[in-house]
Amino acid sequence: MVFDLPFIWAGIIAFAVLAYVVLDGFDLGVGILFPLLWDEAEKDLAISTVAPVWDGNETWLVLGGGGLMAVFPLAYSVVMPAIYLPVFLMLMGLVFRGVAFEFRHRSRGKKHLWDLSFFAGSLAAALAQGLALGTLVQGIHVVDRAYAGGTWDWLTPFSLLTGLAVATGYALLGAAWLVMKTEGPVRLQARRLASRLGPATLALIGTVSLVTPFLDPVYGQRWFTLPYAAFSMSVPLAIGLAALVFAKGLREGRDAWPFLSALAVFVLCFAGLAISFYPLIVPPSLTIWQAAAPRQSLAFLLAGALVLIPMILTYIGYAYWVFRGKVRPGTGYQ
């Protein structure tokens, strides 16, 4: 039996990116919401909900980025020059946020500076990821298997729209996470924020979804012509159902429902991207087979991935299990 290794690796990379978005998205969202929490005790409680898991969440970013470079080197060499500045902004944001995690609990007199770093780093990382996504969706100019665009091609109205959508969506995930993980004033404030961020996120997703099919004729064909449309139209319907579950959970005090339904919205949006992209890895011209490394390299790397990925899943799953349940003041991991 001959396995389609580029297809398998495209699935692995897609899974790693999705895992990063849904897991690191909520702790970036907590950082984005940080200025809207009322006092230091509430901020301490909020950061304690993500402190045990945030670094494990970012493992998927390393796997996705490193895997792209090793498995699809042509795609990596084309995409990185196109989004170099957003990637640099994202990495700087993650650095500031990571330092703030470790320093704010030990700071004397300058805690507000680390709070600002936590907020600014989280917001910068979220916006940068949205800018990079928008750049990829709108298409990257490739000539002779190399990036042929300009330094500022990533900065367009559409990429700014996707940046705002991703940052708002992450804030929604953060608010829903705090609803699920906290009690008292933090939970009440998170419920208020989630009730506002939910409609805003849906509006931005809708706007991006309406614009995307007109960026490339292939996208339009996937969304508006049969037989593709019969499948693609199920995505917005499923998002609507998830939105109803989100609202019902907030209204009835079912604290896990808003978070799980918000995660479902992100997964469905990712499915929508897959419908638009596949089999492209760099729209509008490079497919996963054109960009893949030699078969021997893919087989060698797959052997390592089959060992590494279960280890990562086990570690992260165990961390979430150990720190499950509500976090109360004075009991969180720091």
- Computed CA radius of gyration, to the nearest angstrom: 20 Å
CATH class term:
Mainly Alpha
How many domains, in number, for the residues? Answer: 1
Low-confidence stretches: none
Shape verdict: globular
Number of helices: 15
Going by CATH, the architecture would be: Up-down Bundle
Order of helices and strands: HHHHHHHEEHHHHHHEEHH
How is this structure best described in words?
The chain has one domain (5-322): Formate dehydrogenase/DMSO reductase fold (Up-down Bundle). The protein has 15 helices and 4 strands. The protein has helices at 5-32, 40-50, 54-57, 59-71, 73-82, 84-103, 111-138, 157-181, 184-211, 217-224, 228-232, 234-252, 256-277, 288-291, 295-322; strands at residues 142-143, 146-147, 280-282, 286-287. α7 (111-138) packs across α8 and α8 packs antiparallel against α9 (184-211). The longest helix is centred in the N-terminal third of the chain and has 28 residues, at 5-32. The protein is globular and about 55 Å long. The termini are far apart. The mean pLDDT is 88.
Task: Please outline the helices and strands.
Elements: H1 5-32, H2 40-50, H3 54-57, H4 59-71, H5 73-82, H6 84-103, H7 111-138, E1 142-143, E2 146-147, H8 157-181, H9 184-211, H10 217-224, H11 228-232, H12 234-252, H13 256-277, E3 280-282, E4 286-287, H14 288-291, H15 295-322
Antiparallel strand pairs: 1-2, 3-4
Summarize the structure.
This protein is an all-alpha fold and 334 residues long. The protein has helices at residues 5-32, 40-50, 54-57, 59-71, 73-82, 84-103, 111-138, 157-181, 184-211, 217-224, 228-232, 234-252, 256-277, 288-291, 295-322, and strands spanning 142-143, 146-147, 280-282, 286-287.
